[in-house]
Amino acid sequence: HFRIRIAISVYKMVGVEMPVVSPNEYIDSDTLVHQEERFTQRLYDSILVVDNIPIVGEEKLDRLRTTLSKIFKAFGKLIPWKNPITNSSDLLLIPFDQEKNISKGFCFVKYSNPDDALKACATDGYPLDKNHTFITKLLSDIIRVQFVSDSYSKPDRPSSLVSCAEDVVDLYFWLSDNRSREQFCIRYQDSTEIFWYDSILQPDLDYSRDHWTESKIMWSPKGSYLATFHRQGVALWGGEKWEKIARFAHDSVKFAEFSPCERYLITFNSLSVEQDDAKNPTAVKVWEISTGRILRSFLGLSSSNSSAGNAQLNWPFFKWSHDGAFLARKGPGVISVYETPGLGLVGKKSLKIDKVQEFEWSPSANMLALWTPEVGDTPARVSLVEFPSKSEVRSKALFSVSHIGILWHPQGKYLCCQVDRLTKSKKGKFVNFELFRITAKNIPVETVEFKESDSILEFKWEPKGDRFAVLKNDTPGRQAIVFYTMDAAATSSGESASSVGVMKELFTIGKKTVSHLFWSPSGNIIVLAGLGALNGQLEWINVNEQISLNTNEHFMATEIQWDSSGRYLSTSVSMQRSSGGTGFKIWSCIGRELVDQNRDALFQFLWRPRPVVLLSQEQQKYVKKNLKEFRARYEQEDQELKESRKSGQAAKRRAIREEWEEYMKGRMQEYESEKALRVKARGGIDDDHVWIPKVKESEGYVVIEEVKETVVEVKAQVDKSRGKLINSDDDRD
């Protein structure tokens, strides 16, 4: 009762009334306490405490309140405070010291709902003037911190966790599959299907649903969630039964981007700055996945900066750091970097870089690579900036530059800047690669130069390794692929190189019809692909041995993807890029065709990503060292599964055959039992023997015809359509 009286006094102080209860209505104390706690928590989540505001006298109090109100009105509707002294209502409550006749230097701001209050937390660090910078916190956070004990005590396990454990969705169930199968998702016509896959069991349907999404699907970076897009927003699905985990309301959403840590999600509905409300933007929203709350909203792109209105060419213009700690976007002459979860600017201000063109985060560190163009006598510049310190750790000046592409190694060990340079006459172009060794002392830079006649088509890092491949034009209509290593010393000696390796050209493959390169995620194997108009030509190359493993074709293939493990490669013909027959194929890592399926109106084929391997480097080395032992065990399991599968199919066919024979036997018995009726219907004529074949009852089947032939013993048979030796009854069937 004491707690309830205190709560009622708090409600009256802040201008919120408790629910009205009829005098004749009985409410037990537990229910009343629960209502009080619920109302109190919502109230405290809607109130901000803003410290470090100016201390003023009574004559300037109204002016200060007006100035502050303009700032906080931008985040949502303010609820007036009741002044018990003047019996008036003020938008902000500024405590006043009556004895000293000055304000106390902080104030309370009350919003109509907790979401607006949370957005207003972005004013934390807002500079009102050079002497006053806001410190903004939720009242609920302040109260929570005040009641934290100074001494640590291990919390008891709540009983509710035990009772609700069965309701918790296991987002990682698929990682414990006993055969370590992969999963992939396809979207065709109005259907979306998720399959298990390995090379023995073939695609095994796990879940299927019609009209699951209205536009597209996407996996989260670690494969925990499947996102579906709808007019009302984005929904996330997961778990063994594919339950809805969360939904994020964002009208007409077109794009989304997960943070690498899967804690946050950005959604974008393609609204331009001119179409949006600057005070309450709705184009871009940043969400916390676990709670479903909006962390902050942003304006989109200006119509003049959106590639002729095509937002897809500019997405994502917000970019996550490798661990999700920072979120950055480029503006005119600045890069704004926000720190999660509050999404306030790092250092309370943007990084000013005149005419900055592009930037990319390192895949393994909180470091930005960016470049600025050449202006007059000032050269173009590539810079590496570390966060949160904002310190420049390396830069390089470049002359006669028209464009620079930033290409990080997937492990963050190296950075390649593809520099498109102008000739002295300014009429021709050639390409240089500036290669930064990020992990070496002082970050040395090496250069690979190409001639003006070398038209560079693609640059690709080996995901796990120190090599890279460059695709360039060779002869008219033909391409060449040049392989380099950043660690030539290790390549030549077979041991780890010294502190800094040497960049060296390894070998060249020429006169190929290739448009794209696809390294295996595990390295070593690369696929040379001629997509689209090049008719889907495919070639698998073992870079270690410098040999071709296989060549094949998927006619008119438009997309290629490796699965996360590097065991399988998928090729597909999608509806968006081809008017021909759509479908997909799955290949082994060495180019053997495993699956070929047609799907009308195929839109997407997506392998499910896997989290980073948790094995240490020592454990991975042990597995590689003892690979033969592990391989023998798994090959034996595969062979047993093949035999079991074959015997199971044979048994199934045998059961169907026996069922059919039993059915026919019963029908013939019924036919014989009706003979008298047939003879009577024919006027006493028995002519069954004229057209009915006789039954050998002892064998249980009808003899249609007897043919005797001499059969030569079959030594081997080949299925020419599949190029496969037939060595079992199942294959013949």
List the helices and strands and how they pair.
Layout: H1 2-14, H2 29-45, E1 47-51, H3 61-73, E2 81-83, E3 88-90, E4 92-93, E5 96-97, E6 102-103, E7 106-110, H4 114-120, E8 127-129, E9 132-133, E10 135-138, H5 139-146, H6 159-164, E11 182-188, E12 191-197, E13 204-210, E14 217-219, E15 226-230, E16 233-238, E17 243-249, E18 255-258, E19 264-268, E20 284-288, E21 294-298, E22 318-320, E23 326-331, E24 334-339, E25 344-345, E26 351-352, E27 358-361, E28 367-372, E29 380-386, E30 391-398, E31 401-408, E32 414-422, E33 429-437, E34 445-449, E35 456-461, E36 467-473, E37 479-485, H7 488-493, E38 504-512, E39 516-519, E40 525-530, E41 537-542, E42 547-553, E43 559-562, E44 568-573, E45 583-588, E46 593-598, E47 602-607, H8 617-625, H9 627-673, H10 675-681, H11 688-691, E48 695-696, E49 701-702, E50 717-719, E51 724-726, H12 729-732
Antiparallel strand pairs: 1-7, 1-10, 2-3, 4-7, 5-6, 8-9, 11-12, 11-47, 12-13, 14-15, 15-16, 16-17, 18-19, 19-20, 20-21, 22-23, 23-24, 24-25, 24-26, 27-28, 28-29, 29-30, 31-32, 32-33, 33-34, 35-36, 36-37, 37-38, 39-40, 40-41, 41-42, 43-44, 44-45, 45-46, 48-49, 50-51
Kindly list the characteristics that best describe this protein.
733 residues, alpha+beta, five-stranded antiparallel beta sheet, four-stranded antiparallel beta sheet, 12 helices, 19% helix, globular, disordered N terminus
Task: Walk me through the structure.
The protein has 733 residues and is α+β, with helices and mostly antiparallel strands. Helix content is 19%, strand content 35%. The protein has 12 helices and 51 strands. Strands 22, 23, 24, 25 and 26 form a 5-stranded antiparallel sheet that branches. Strand 31 and strand 32 (414-422) form a beta hairpin. Helix 1 runs parallel beside helix 2 (29-45) and helix 2 (29-45) packs parallel to helix 4 (114-120). The longest helix has 47 residues, at 627-673. The termini are far apart. The model is unreliable at 1-27, 158-165, 491-498 and 695-699 (pLDDT under 50).
